[in-house]
Amino acid sequence: MTFADRQKRAQDNWKQLKRGPQPVIWIGIATCGLAAGAADVLAAVESELAETGAEAKIIPVGCIGPCYLEPLMDIEKPGRPRVSYGPMTPENARMLVHSYLLGDDPRPDLALGTLGEGDIPGIPRFFDLPMLKPQVRIVTRNVGLINPEDIDHYLAVGGYGGLERALTLRPEQVIDEVTASGLRGRGGAGFPTGQKWTLARRAAGSPKYLICNADEGDPGAFMDRSVLEGDPHAVLEGMLIAAYAIGATQGYIYVRSEYPLAIKRLAIALKQMRDYGLLGEYILGSGFDFDIRINEGAGAFVCGEETALIASIEGKRGMPNPRPPFPATSGLWGKPTNINNVETLANVPFILRHGPGRFASYGTEQSKGTKTFSLTGKVKHSGLIEVPMGMTLGEVIFSIGGGIVGDRKFKAVQTGGPSGGCLPARLANLPVDYEALAEAGSIMGSGGLVVLDENTCTVEMARYFLAFTQQESCGKCPPCRLGTKHMLAVLEDICGGRGRLEDIALLEELGKAVKAASLCGLGQTAPNPVLSTLRYFQEEYEEHTARRFCPGGVCQALVRYSIDPEQCTGCGACSKGCPVECITGEPKAAHVIDEAACTACGTCFQVCRFEAVQRLPAAEGVSGAGV
Amino acid sequence: MSDQIDAILREFDTGKTTRQQRAGCILPVLQNIQRALGYIPRESLPRVAAFLGVPESHVYGVATFYAQFRFSPPGKNTVTVCCGTACHVRGSGRLLRDLEQRLGIRPGETTPDLDFSLDTIACFGSCALAPVVVVNGKVQGRMNRSRLLKRIEAVASPGGGGDAEADGQEVRP
Q: Is the ipTM of this complex over 0.85?
């Protein structure tokens, strides 16, 4: 069977699936959906179908984005649009099989929205929902919409069309198109992709290698996982195009071992590609040979750094090397090597298929296209999102994210993970753009957006990130190895109530030294969370040291709690919530906290609806349980 | 055990690999050993070194560099707390303290009766469902103290391993 025959067959089957007589049930089976209980929903649907004898095809898909509505399930009946429901429970999944699949009631009260052609009265269109409307889906174009374990689904929606077109061009022309699109590295640093490919193309030496960096190590980021789990072929097609452009013959995908489902789906996808003549020799009948191997990471954050990643694939400790030489000239096994991130590669087929102009029509002067983010923390609508570059952080958090959980006050947003910075609420108008974020002391990073509310402590956040980078420092260069350790010790003192006012200047001095002198990106960016919080939240550091008070109530050594008898209604919510049972009082009478037993966990403060529980600076000589 | 290790090593012996390629297999070799045995036995290191054609110190250096590898057998039940940013902001630190108190061990340790191992992980990538705890390979989102402790009692109960609440995901494919 030729490739064209396979494409035709895939399209026919897809039409049959969409327009045929059998209803289809789509269930989001990504790691996030499974963590929310998608496996139980799937089992409930399967048993209900078996018991009732109802006919329907069940198709697993990736995560379409709004993780806060997981588990998600869609029902598509012949001649009607797909109706999306969530969050699902096994009970309402069974109920929907009866009311909509067997009956004719789509239950608009439970539905989130419709996908595809046609309308159903009372149900909005899914992509018109407030969380989805401002988004533009290029990287995630198929995620949640096709079965990631079926290459025919990918072919039916135009997959590998970018590769087919690329193979009709000369490699230099492919690079020109990527350059014209303005695509920049989505791993965080934002190096122009076309330029990177040119360097690898021109480098002398053979063979040449192409590596896909899927070692998504930033805690709080899961964009790459979502794409790999939901549309692995998009990344693999991007790899084929990149390999053709630079002249690589062997590819590697370096995936972190914490993503077993992504690894499994990549392995399935690679096998299907081999069966379809998309890997190996004479790909699609051209003179282009290329193969791809999966390399599983082993839990080292530093391996996200290019030279450390290469060392890891070579079977060494994942320690970085000074650049130059850059991997483009001397990379894996000393050969020319090009490394691109998952999201960068997933953009490439779109650019080749639709032309660079369409891609560049989104974004700002310097930052073209879109960016995916994992929107998490204290935000209402958490999930995977993709927005055009240039959208402001405020729009992302409030229009898409729906604002702060419990309608509390928005305090800050952490971008770029442990390498990034903490930006205060007053910078909400800052656009998502490489240069704008860097100017504000943060970075675009790979795309973690962790939203912080008033009950978060920025000093403690800085301590958290330093604890991470200190732990993950490979130990090769002293500025990073010793500097992060010293910075962490100072931050632990401050959070533990032992800080001095002069520690603030010491932290800044240390941070600048580590940033300037470290060997690789890990050390060069590790101080960012500290330096950015010092820049925007210095008063919080001062409160911690001079006043011995943590306004966010997170550093337990720096707060104590007391109940204002005037405000207390004696509702008892605090004493029920107290994990150490140190709150006493008669019903409807003012309650009292036994400060000697209190661990300052703050549960009472958060549950009290009458503002009777007060958060106060730790008294001299009396401290809580410590950090 | 040594038979098992030899069998794992044989899988990597394709006959036509270069010295360089063989040395590059170290991570997959160690990963397969840990997958089969639950940990890397010290006595496997010389065998791995001889097979890959590298010094034993190199194998030890690599195995200790990466957080994934452990040198002692895991407990019957493994509990892993995600310490990613989103989980941290949503209280995973407190869950970890609750577990330390309940099990009487610190992360990286196993209870003396070999019933439980406690671990932390940098990030599972299920941040939107924070905080996340993985009990016996099943990722469980939106965790809280009472659900977590109930879950621990369920798997720890006499007879052990009774998986009452079987939601979540198998981590190993």
A: yes
**Distance, in angstroms, between B159 CA and closest chain A CA?**
24
Mean pLDDT within B34-44: 93
The amino acid at A129: L
Q: Flag whether pLDDT at A235 surpasses 50.
A: yes
Q: Are A17 and A58 in contact (CB under 8 A)?
A: no
Q: How far is CA A242 from CA A21, A162, A338, A597, B56, in A?
A: 41, 11, 9, 62, 38
User: Does A222 touch chain B if contact means CB atoms closer than 8 Å?
Assistant: yes
Gap between the Cα atoms of A21 and B8, Å rounded: 49
Answer whether A557's CB lies under 8 Å from A623's CB. Answer: yes
* CB spacing of B129 vs A414 below 8 angstroms: no
Residue A35 to residue B168, Cβ atoms within 8 A? yes
- With beta carbons under 8 A apart, name residues in chain A contacting B128: 32, 67-68, 70, 222, 374-376, 382-384
B106 interface with A at CB cutoff 8 Å: no
The chain A residue lying nearest B141, using CA atoms, is A35
Per-domain boundaries in chain B: 2-65, 77-156
Q: Which of A270-274, A622-626, B120-124 has the weakest average pLDDT?
A: A622-626
Radius of gyration over alpha carbons of chain A, in Å?
Answer: 27
Residue A568 phi, psi dihedral angles, 5° rounding: -70, 130
Instruction: Provide the number of CB pairs (under 8 Å) joining chain A to chain B.
Output: 159
Chain B residues within an 8 Å CB radius of A315: 23-27, 52, 54, 62
The two three-digit tokens of residue A469, written as one number? 């980078």
Report whether B138 contacts A34 (CB < 8 A): no
The pLDDT of residue B171: 39
Chain A contact present for B131, CB below 8 A: no
CA separation for the pair A82, A128 (Å, rounded): 14
Q: Which amino acid, A55?
A: E
Chain A touched by B126 (CB under 8 Å): yes
Length of chain A counted residue by residue: 627
Mutate to test the interface with A, among B21, B88, B127 (most CBs of A within 10 A): B127
Does A257 contact B68 at a Cβ distance shorter than 8 Å? yes
Top CATH class of A160-359 equals alpha beta
In A, which residues are within 8 Å of B68 by CB distance?
257, 298-299
Q: CA-CA distance, A218 to A237, in Å (whole number)?
A: 25
Pick the CATH number of A10-128 from 3.40.30.10, 3.40.50.720, 1.10.510.10, 2.60.120.20: 3.40.30.10
Residue B104: pLDDT band with limits 50, 70, 90: very high
Architecture of domain B2-65: Orthogonal Bundle (1.10)
Q: Cα(first)–Cα(last) distance of chain A, in Å?
A: 65
How buried is A155 (Cβ within 10 angstroms: 0-12 exposed, 13-18 middle, 19+ buried)?
buried
Answer CATH for B77-156 from 3.40.50.10140, 3.40.50.1980, 3.40.30.10, 3.30.1450.10:
3.40.30.10
pLDDT tens by residue, A9-31: 999 999 999 888 999 999 999 98
Q: How far apart are CA A90 and CA A44, in angstroms?
A: 5
